[in-house]
Structures are given as C-alpha cells and as structure tokens.
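for ur thesis appendix - Aminodeoxychorismate lyase. copy paste whatever u need, i formatted it the way the template wanted (i think)
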Amino acid sequence: MKYHVDGELVPAENATVSVEDRGFQYGDAAFETMRAYGGSIFEWSAHAERLAGSCETLGIDHGLSDAELRKRIRETLDANDLADAYVKLSISRGVQEGKLTPRPDADPTVVVIVKELPRGGVEGADVWDEPATVQTTKTRRIPDNALPAEAKTHNYLNGILARRELVEGADEALLRDAEGNVAEGAASNLFLVGEDGIHTPSLDGPVLPGITREVVIELADEAEIPVYTGSYAPDDVRNAEEAFLTNTTWELRPIESVDGIEIGGGPVTNLLSRLFDERVERRHYDGD
Ligand code: PLP
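the 3d part is after this line
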C-alpha cells in the first residue's frame, strides 16, 4: 500500500508524521472521508468545499488548490491500483514553534490514505450494510459555540466518548444537543421517515453538514418526497415509521432499533437507497 504524505507517495509503513505535528499533539487538523467509485470521487466538489471551510475555521492555510488535492488523491488511488476505495484526506497545521497558540509560520502536513472499499463492503471485515442498532448516549454533542460542528476536524473525542457508552451489539451512538434534542450519530447524520415525508435535524444545531445527507435531500426533492429539517426529541426517533443513518461509507443505513425499540427500514428508505445507488451508477460507472 502507498500513501501520499506531503507531496510524496510512500509505502504505508514509511508514511509517518512528526510527533510534534499539531494534528497529533492537539487534534489541530481538518479532514475529509470520501469514497471513490470507479476511480472518481463521489461529490468531490462538495468535499473540497467542506474541507476549505474546515481549514478556514481552524485558520490553516495549506496553499494548495482543489485541483492539486484532487491530483494527490488520484495519484494515491493509481499507485494502489484502486477504483472503489475509502479515501481520507487530512490536513494538519503541521509543526510550529511555540505552544498552543497557532502561528502563521506552521508548515501544514497533507496526507492521503486509501483503502479498498468495494460496493457492499469488504466481505468478512465490515457489516455496515446490515441495519444499525442505535443507542442514545449520555454524552451530549459539543455545542457549536464551543466547537463548530460544521468543521470536520481531527478532534473526534466527542463521538469517541459517545461510542464508548455503546452496549454490546450496538453500532452507532446517537448524540443529543444541550437541549436534549437529537443531533446526529458519532459519525453519521440521522433521518426519520413520517407519514408526511422525511425529517432530519437542522444544521442550526450541532450537526455536521454531511455530504450524504445533502445528496439524500436532493434525491428526495427530485422524487417529490417532502423534506423537513427541525428539532426532534429522542421519542420522535423511537416513534418514527422508518429511520436511517447516512455517511460516506455507509451510504444509507436503515436503523433497526434505537434504545431497544424496533424501528426498521421500509419503503421510503428502500426507495432513497435505490435512488442513491442509481446516482452512483449513473455518475461513476456509466460515464454520465
Ligand atoms: N456527522 C459526523 C459527526 C460525521 O463524522 C460524519 C462522517 O464521518 C457524518 C455526519 C456524515 O457525513 P458524510 O455524509 O459527509 O460522510
């Protein structure tokens, strides 16, 4: 396996960053998790834009164009002969003199990691195409005025602490905001299906603007399924007709149960999953 580190393709075992790197020291870094289908990055422009926003929030000026970042991803996929892959692009502030206060003389570290990820997951290794068992957690989502959820940074302790609460067999932690409304999963967005359409927590709350979330909203609009964003209590999830999670690797993942209460997928989740598949096929395999 080869990874891209600071402009060089290096064997994975030699792909290292300094122990003084601020991504390691403080989580002072931004990243994107993407998926390559047929060699092209699904929703690249949206990922590039979100990464730029995260870097702006952190004040990391890496000085690379989106085209250069895309080129490094393509080189990493090509070097590993991968077409369908998980792709992680991380940009840390790098090493700098001094302590916590970020300084403009830091030299950002840019890393691309890829792993094979065929559609449907890697057999035996992952089960994310199975419906998810979800658990609401005591750990609350960090409020936006403490750490803006829209910035996808290397500081994932909030989700890690929530997932530490999971009982045996649970797949995803569902975090509530400071008011007790559901916000999102540790690494996923939440959708509820009601008789009137689909619902998802508003981005006014501490919710990462998921790229998959946005695609699902677009697909629902095209299919004339009404989409609502708002505030939802844990009981709204438990009483939903259907519910599902979204993220780049899971795509749409039905929620089997939350806190032991059965929900399950259903016709709307199935329809949106099929539309999502068609979009991937059309854009990445049929040369649309
Ligand atoms: N919310 C959080 C906290 C995440 O970490 C992720 C993805 O990792 C998502 C939502 C889903 O975002 P996306 O669809 O862009 O993968």
